[in-house]
Fold DNA-binding transcriptional regulator, MarR family.
Amino acid sequence: MEDEVDRLVAAWRRERPDLDVEPLEVLSRVGRLSRHLDIARRSAFAEHALEPWEFDVLTALRRAGAPYQLSPGQLLTQTLVTSGTMTNRIDRLAGKGLVQRLPDPDDRRGVLVRLTRAGQERADAALSGLLDHERAILAELSPAQRGDLAALLRQLVAPFDNLAD
């Protein structure tokens, strides 16, 4: 089975035989897959009237466990955005009734962001929809292949994640 990356690599090998284009065989596929995943995820979120960033914030709160609340700083760490961006996102989600701001009992100047019941229902439904889409994408791989691929990707991604720590 040939794909677009095979054609791209063959063309570079023909045009620039002096270069080792082997990295393209893996990373160009990862890049193309990333674009396809982005399209699939946007579709899955749209089915639940969510933008990707809304899903990120709501599911960060959902993963926190009851009472489904985090400080804005904790949300920043989990979603990798600036404080100004997070403030805007919290405002917009609060305006939709998906989160609420509460005073932080441990910090008189601080606030906590809590998932509302509507936010929890939306996050849960969107996650189920996303997983359905992602299972379909992985359907051609056996469970063992999925495990092997996850391990290999972890090996590539971990150094980047550890830089953020």
User: Anything to note?
Assistant: The chain has a mean pLDDT of 93. The chain is about 70% helix and 10% strand.
